[in-house]
Amino acid sequence: MTDDDLTRAADWLRAADRVCVLTGAGVSAESGVPTFRASDGLWEGHRIEDVASPDGFERDPKLVWQFYNARRANARTVEPNPGHLALVALERRWGERFTLVTQNVDGLHRTAGSTNVLEIHGSLHRTRCLGCNRVTDRNIQEDLGDEPACPKCYGQLRPDIVWFGEALPESVWLPSLNAAYGCNVLLVVGTSAVVHPAASLVPIAKRKQPAARVIEVNLTRTEASQMADVGLYGPSGVVLPKLVERLG
Ligand code: BV8
Ligand code: ZN
């Protein structure tokens, strides 16, 4: 990342009326949350379709709950990193003209202090009942066991997470689309941009008129890089605070 790149990114950001941010697992990596596609990938030992799909849950709900209880246990041990805190600072600067769309289910953006957070793939903190559809915030302190039942109707509980093959809830996806269409700058942080429809927010922001400026923050180039106006390559926990500082 050159100093000139940082200045250009800060200039576009400073001039923006509305800002949208899309984050992925990379923004939590420095907090100690494993990413999905790194060699020590989260899915290690488990095939995605076995632990993050409705069929997998139908086939072996205990295995899926073991996988999610393990991720809840990891989430108990981690703290927000300076990258999460830099995004809180950006939200405080733009207020309700700032939207944070996250693919992450670890809850770290909210823990860091972000408030307008669209958790488009759900959250490890919540369960959903297959009997009465009730969504409950269970936070992450307790292990839910491998066959948790609904306290209200004794129905089967599942993690309130969007699995592969499932639609994103309209309650979070529509405002995310709105934010991507309405923003002047889209900050894409720590995502390989391979999972859809989340990744489609980048071309949406880029192809609309007037186009948004796309700033990518990542360790490496990704599927989104060719649509980025500038790439700030480095750890997001280092780059994002530098960007906030350059904003002045
Ligand atoms: C749907 C919850 C249909 C689970 C997740 C072929 C082509 C295109 C699409 C598809 C296809 N085949 C199937 C599909 C659809 C599929 C999809 O996109 N598959 C991909 C794999 C090809 N999508 C779906 O199934 C979606 N649903 O399409 O439904 C439908 C439509 C209408 C009506 C009914 C049905 C649902 C997708 C949601 C799946 N759920 N998460 C869980 O978390 O347990 S996705 C999962 O991947 C996570 O949410 C994660 O966030 C997400 C994306 O991964 P990333 O966040 O990007 O993480 P990754 O490890 O990949 O990358 C990390 C990045 O960080 C890297 O770039 C790395 O360089 C960088 N990094 C690392 N450290 C740092 C860093 N950057 C900065 N600093 C650092 N320190
Ligand atoms: Zn229930």
Describe the structure.
The structure is a single chain. Helix 6 runs parallel beside helix 10 (236-247) and helix 8 packs parallel to helix 9 (201-207). The mean pLDDT is 95. The protein is built from ten helices and nine strands. Helix 9 links the parallel strand 7 and strand 8 (213-218). The radius of gyration is 18 Å and the shape is elongated. By secondary structure, it is α/β, with parallel strands linked by helices. The chain starts with a helix and ends with a helix. 37% of the residues lie in helices and 18% in strands. It folds into two domains: 3-33 and 79-121 and 168-247, 3-Layer(aba) Sandwich (Rossmann fold), CATH 3.40.50.1220; 34-77 and 124-161, SIR2/SIRT2 'Small Domain'. The longest helix has 16 residues, at 61-76. The protein binds ligand BV8 and zinc ion. Zinc ion is lined by residues 129, 131-132, 134, 150, 152-153, 155.
Write the layout of secondary structure elements.
Layout: H1 3-14, E1 19-23, H2 26-29, H3 48-51, H4 54-59, H5 61-76, H6 82-94, E2 98-102, H7 108-112, E3 117-119, E4 122-129, E5 135-137, E6 157-161, H8 170-182, E7 185-189, H9 201-207, E8 213-218, E9 230-233, H10 236-247
Parallel strand pairs: 1-2, 1-7, 2-3, 7-8, 8-9
Antiparallel strand pairs: 4-5, 4-6
Helix pairs in contact: 1-10, 6-10, 8-9
The structure holds ligand BV8 and zinc ion.
Low confidence ranges: none
What name does the CATH topology of the largest domain carry? Rossmann fold
- In the CATH classification, which architecture of the largest domain applies? 3-Layer(aba) Sandwich
- Binned, the helix content reads 25-40%
Radius of gyration: 18 Å
The percentage of residues in β strands lies in 15-25%
| N to C succession of SSEs | HEHHHHHEHEEEEHEHEEH
Shape: elongated
Mean pLDDT: 95
**Main sheet?**
6 strands, parallel
Tell me which ligands are bound: ligand BV8, zinc ion
Strand tally: 9
Structural class: alpha/beta
Query: End-to-end span in angstroms?
Result: 19 Å
| Strand order in space, largest sheet | 3-2-1-7-8-9
